[in-house]
Design goal:
- By secondary structure, this protein is of the alpha/beta class.
- The protein has 2 domains: 152 residues, Nucleotidyltransferase, domain 5; 175 residues, ATPase, nucleotide binding domain (Nucleotidyltransferase, domain 5, 2-Layer Sandwich), CATH 3.30.420.
- It is 42% helix and 18% strand.
- It has a 5-stranded mixed beta sheet, sandwiched between helices. Strands 8-7-6-9-10 form a 5-stranded mixed beta sheet, sandwiched between helices.
- Helix 3 packs across helix 10, helix 4 runs antiparallel to helix 7 and helix 5 packs across helix 7.
- Bound molecules: 5'-O-[(R)-(carboxyoxy)(hydroxy)phosphoryl]adenosine and zinc ion.
- 5'-O-[(R)-(carboxyoxy)(hydroxy)phosphoryl]adenosine binds next to helix 4 and helix 5.
- The site of 5'-O-[(R)-(carboxyoxy)(hydroxy)phosphoryl]adenosine (KG4) has 20 residues, from helix 4 and helix 5.
């Protein structure tokens, strides 16, 4: 069964063609128009999706060497995300579904991230997933695919959001090119000392699986202010600040995930979402899970950040179970996981 997936929940316009065994194409067009504003401007994002969506779909079909008529169904992100951006993907998908007389499935974006680990391979359930992106940080027990238990989540900022805000604070984001904050911090941290500044690890002693990153972000901001007041050149200390901040985020993410692994007595642990591209997080969590005799899974780097292959794979799963969405399915800025129903 060949599925064309479409993802437009934020600032990436993406289309992919997958079946149960392979990804045939996964085209991601990253919008550049937000760079000069230092953050994503929702209205600009929807307009950019309108301009990019058809060429991106055409490229995905071409790279997969198929024609539109060859697909058996479509999958599209229905939320959570930016409403104006989601609407573009949803309406294009519905238009194609009608004109081709093919089924379509509206996919929960976070469920898509969970599926990024099971494209082209199976993971035996149950498995624990640490889902860390720009908008969400959640610990989810995947009891079965399609059946999830939320163990904990961030009480304020998402981990990726903290990376983005601290990157901006450290002047690491160029104004002529979109660079993900997390990537910029990870690069700056390469030659820094992760123990240079003892940034706080929030909720460390609390008996829950929740996260909090806003206090850490404020601590970095206060630290930077102090440095500036003492006329220290920020550029000289950026590597140490970036490395110490990254170490604090990773320690909290790894610590909470291992605690959940112990609590649930699960042996399989996966990570997903944009922050899962972080090398320190991947290596630290992998070694902690393996020390405990567990199995660790992480997606290929290009499947961590937003992409349509994960949406197509999720839609394929539901279509194979006989589910499809109805034409009056609407997009939604916020939808809780687990998804209640497919449509
Ligand atoms: O999953 P994603 O592409 O979009 C959302 O669903 O939010 O995640 C984007 C987030 C951004 O906050 C970005 O800074 C972060 O993932 N990110 C990283 C890295 N690459 C991307 N965070 C830490 N280290 C990275 N290497
Ligand atoms: Zn995402």
């Amino acid at each position: 069964m060949l599925v064309l997936g479409i993802e437009t929940s934020c600032d990436e316009t993406s289309a992919a063609v997958v079946d149960d065994t392979s990804i045939y194409s996964n085209v991601v067009w990253s919008q550049q128009e937000h760079a000069k504003y230092g953050g994503i401007v929702p209205e600009l994002a929807s307009r950019a999706h309108v301009r990019a969506i058809v060429p991106v779909i055409e490229t995905a079909l071409k790279e997969a060497s198929i024609k539109l008529n060859d697909i058996d169904g479509l999958a599209v992100t229905k939320g959570p995300g930016l409403i104006g951006s989601l609407i573009v993907g949803m309406n294009v998908t519905k238009g194609m579904a009608i004109s081709l007389s093919k089924p379509f499935v509206g996919v929960h974006h976070l469920e898509g991230h969970i599926f990024s680990n099971v494209i082209e391979r199976n993971i035996e359930t149950p498995f624990l997933t640490l889902l860390a992106s720009g908008g969400h940080t959640e610990l989810v027990l995947v009891e079965n695919l399609g059946q999830y238990r939320l163990l904990g989540q961030t009480l304020d900022d998402a981990a990726g959001e903290a990376f983005d805000k601290v990157a901006k604070l450290l002047n690491l984001l160029p104004t002529n090119k979109m660079v993900m904050g997390g990537r910029a911090i990870a690069a700056a941290a390469e030659c820094g000392d992760p123990q240079a500044i003892p940034f706080p690890r929030a909720l460390a002693s609390v008996d829950s699986f929740d996260f909090s990153f806003s206090g850490l972000k404020t601590a970095v901001s206060n630290h930077v202010k102090q440095l500036q007041e003492s006329s220290i050149d920020l550029r000289e200390v950026v590597p140490d600040v970036a490395a110490s901040f990254q170490a604090a985020v990773v320690e909290v993410l790894v610590g909470r995930t291992i605690k959940a692994m112990d609590f649930l007595n699960v042996s399989r642990v996966a990570i997903a979402g944009g922050v899962a591209a972080n090398r320190l997080l991947r290596t630290d969590l992998q070694s902690r899970v393996e020390q405990k005799g567990g199995e660790f899974f992480c997606p290929a780097l290009e499947l961590c950040t937003d992409n349509a292959a994960m949406i197509a794979a999720t839609g394929l799963f539901y279509m194979q179970r006989g589910n499809q969405s109805v034409m009056d399915l609407d997009v939604s800025a916020r939808i809780p996981l687990p998804p209640a129903v497919v449509n």
